[in-house]
């Protein structure tokens, strides 16, 4: 129950602070025989790393992954995979000041109350750099899911009030614009909004949509370990995520059963299909074989450069202007983090589902 | 990881199907010395039980709790508390028909795919009756939280498009109207909507808001065991919940940092307070001492009496009209379920937080 | 981590006190499709129940199992199986006296120190009746293991200083003598010893050996979840077990590598075999395909009828003579408990092992 | 359930192979405010490191610990502590040969069967070097326990048939002889035995005794999470441990209740004490306030240099002579490993016990 471990069978443990020596993850319970090279991991870390565009922090970190265990002759051995990234450009001096006060919207105050003191260098453990471990581990989960025909795709659905238009949806454009929107026109509008807000020393929120294709029906456990409950926890565990929905989610609360129920039919190949997908691919907490659709709602980056009121530890009400290197928007860099969390969650429940039926267990051991 | 267990220290395991012998729960890890009588449990079960109004299923179940272990001389002993409710009026005959087809919006199809067959009597384990165990266990958590000065309160925020007005917020009206809205006027409108939709053989969705007061700052663990991540999982695990938010949640994704950040100040008693509560009482996944505010979005009851298209197991596309006893709206009876889940979650993390600091641990053992 | 839950995938939660209403267990994570009738469970409970011979407590309990959930049309559904046994002949009056003092060798004192008070009726939760839940759950595990070709067999290896002779080993005699020894001659000697000690108002300890046949190589996880570590915990969790060994165990600590190493060879069917089995079927914590052999060492029943010194709660040193209904030896009735714990442990690790290799996972999902 | 994680509240995850880049551990759930320097960790690693005497492997490894996270300004922050040791002198060439065959007494065969292939460099994950992570984490647990007045002490009780004499017990001599026996005379005999066996290219087993002083009564959870069950698992999880006992353990199985029961009395300070300690400080799985005494039985090192029969992967029965750098006895270097495992286990259950009583919880939060 220690907070930095996630998963039951495919289990990851992350560690590290934004301005410590390094940040890393241990992946345990990874099946043996998965071909993994450092470049498989680096590909995803590069999507997360800072300095990708003018909309992300100017902190320059190569975020080069080192793999220290669990891989032998290019394949996972079944034993723990330890990976880490050294922090190279930590400039703690930026933070000497914030040691004395609590930044609004940050976890400074709550860490102090919880632990009696805090590592005040750039947020310490509550920094977004913590997600490096998730992304590195997620890269392995993605690879395994692909082997099983399952694809996880995330993209920016909206930034501020700029939303993508599904009629212009183009998966190829996701990586060709700095905001990772699958709609070039919306992306343009979003960058204009960001330019404006950056000038105002302000920041912007947004929504990431994550779709999972190819997942068989039957994944997720009844009652407390529902697939959507776990995806919800996975997404809500990402700093700055303040809401989560599956399928028609929020809208469904204002709709009627006759509209919201997805009616079943047999397609030409005699497979059970749904006419609509308000369920977002999950019924009773269990995958129904349809595309899974979830969304994570991100608040605006709390670090803004305009003046804010707050308190210091000497008991004074003060005004501050935060320094340092911060993103005016978190969303584009968080896209790969949601992919990682979705992949870790789905893989773990997929592995668990192997034990659901006696007939399949018997086949497994008696082949 | 079996799906029917929840919590790490204060841990519950629920069991039972809607039309089986009984439904129950085992609570393990409950501190010794909590005064508990059956009536403490029954009080909450009565809020959940069917037949409370014309907007809930006409199935008549007294849902009388029996306590079988873990209480001695009126107090918890520290060992497992087993509680159950016998199903009295299961009329499985209602369900003989649905064995052959999949009800839209229900888990019939996914259970069949997962397990190879299903208990088709009224949803079996996926029935809302499953929540009896949660509510019984939650009643104990509520009692402990009260002893610690923490209060959990849920109510209906909206039904369909009818929303409460906070200017008319009246906590006393929650239990005086059948929809559990803390606004008598909105409640009236909501019942009119329900009357209309019932006549149309349709059903309606809604939103439950849950507030937690008196929780100290410092509860919730970094990274994966954040308080909001756990509350999100808790709420999303309730059947029919399709979205979850904390504080200004969804709205924050369209706002700017300058608006959304809650600025700190010292109040007259020299305590750190926030000028606003967009955070919903949680910063970096850890309680900040402010009121915690979360919301669960419920889809409309999938069981509607109008005709729907679906498939049967013989490979045919068919039309069905579902029979049985169903709620045209789930929300009012689910209010107490959200209270239970919030209480269980907060209590578990509260107990865990006792181990956060060496100085406090030393005090604990050396007093 | 609450203490009454065991297992990760096949997970059981037991509850109940010796003199409460009932004693039971919830089995969650049981694969769907296992044919189970009450008689399958009762068969094992009957081996555990009191009053089987003059060497077990004269308390008369039928210990009839009721199954309340998780079985539909004769098969497990994949959802929690709730089972219980009502206590019928609890005579708490026997225990009114022991409320005031601590019985030597019992958990009276430690429960009081832990919880501030205790359910003093017959040991409460620390009573041997707690194992009813284990045995009921174990009966299901045994059934599944049999389907997979795995057999778990326990028997009494020694009582006091009377040990079986493997040259006379006869599996059929286990159930034909009251001490469950697979050697009729040793059994006779053991009963004479018990008769003598019973007259002296004393009690006797003993050793149970448990062998597991047909388990494939590869079960058990490296480092902390080794098969032998888990079997050790399983056995040590049985009240009165004070030591545990696997294979040549204790003896191996006095032997040399040249003697203790089991050398490998190919048998005629070209299968890898070991010339000896000092390892007890486990190498590096992982099953090697050979018979698993473990032993649990039981202390003598602490409830003896002769006079003992102890303390009461009024601060006095006193002498007591315990009343009530007690076994002069625990071992014969505990044989089935060790079978249950071994079966639960092996099944859980067996299910977990299904996720060890990518090639097998791919086969599983792509067939 | 992934095998390399241990503990519930104070939770460790170890990683690394004997001949990989590095070996390490992540400690999560460590209370904030524990003063820790690298030298605190190094002190214990030095007791474990190779090359301490002629009775341990001549592999020269400094085993210098690096702390990468979780410590700020000399104290633990409450977030994960990542520690590692780089492997410096891995000479994989030593092992190119063993890739083709299975060493008797080692886990080569079982890893191959489990995972389809193995990291054959020196045992990979099954190597004794895996315990570096345990010892590093254990050093932190030891430090916290000391702050709480609890001391854990391990020493060699016997090597082969040479046993210590308690009349000559001298705690100061443990670190002054190469076999870590608290009896100089026995130590001398033991080294003679080792010299002899080393010349014969053979290896020897032994027993480690571990005593825990100052632990309050009430630690350990009923039924499955008993203190002795957890200590049993902890010890059995150490490679080469084949048996475990608590208190009079094995002997108690041959004794009678009248001898084995520890009678209670009030001492002069009016405290409850036991006249004897056959229980080894644990009654009903819960600490009784007395010294806890447990023992771990180690088999002889499986790596011996004399010729042995085994099989190769080409299907042939062969004879082999193992090369490499191996200990003729594991026990002296494992002493600190048992201390680490005992400390981790006791600390975790101690922290958990803080949640046992409502009155103490109320005090904790209301002070």
Helix percent band of chain A? 25-40%
- Biggest sheet character of chain A: 5 strands, antiparallel
In terms of DSSP E residues, the strand content of chain A is 15-25%
For the largest interface, the chains and their residue counts are: C-D, 116 and 116 residues
Strand order of the largest sheet of chain A: 1-2-3-7-4
| N/C terminus separation of chain A | 37 Å
**Radius of gyration computed on alpha carbons of chain A:** 22 Å
Quaternary structure annotation: homotetramer
Low-confidence stretches of chain A: none
Number of helices of chain A: 9
**Number of DSSP strand runs of chain A:** 18
Strand/helix succession of chain A: EEEHEEEEHHEEHEHEHHEEEEEEEHH
Q: What is the SS-derived class of chain A?
A: alpha+beta
Average pLDDT taken over every residue of chain A: 94
Shape of chain A: globular
Describe it.
Four copies of one chain form a homotetramer. Chain A is of the alpha+beta class. The first copy, chain A, is built from nine helices and 18 strands. In chain A, the strands form six sheets. Chain A has a five-stranded antiparallel β-sheet with strand order 1-2-3-7-4, with helices on one face. In chain A, helix 1 crosses helix 3 (131-147). Chain A is globular. Chains A and D meet through strand 2, strand 3 and strand 7 of A and strand 2, strand 3 and strand 7 of D.
Summarize the helices and strands and which ones pair or pack.
The structure is a homotetramer of 367-residue chains.
Chain A: E1 5-6, E2 11-16, E3 22-28, H1 38-48, E4 65-67, E5 71-72, E6 75-76, E7 81-86, H2 108-115, H3 131-147, E8 151-159, E9 162-163, H4 184-199, E10 206-213, H5 227-236, E11 241-246, H6 249-252, H7 257-260, E12 264-266, E13 272-274, E14 282-283, E15 286-287, E16 292-298, E17 308-311, E18 317-320, H8 331-353, H9 358-366
Antiparallel strand pairs in A: 1-2, 2-3, 3-7, 4-7, 5-6, 8-9, 8-10, 10-16, 11-16, 12-13, 14-15, 17-18
Helix pairs in contact in A: 1-3, 1-8, 3-8, 5-8
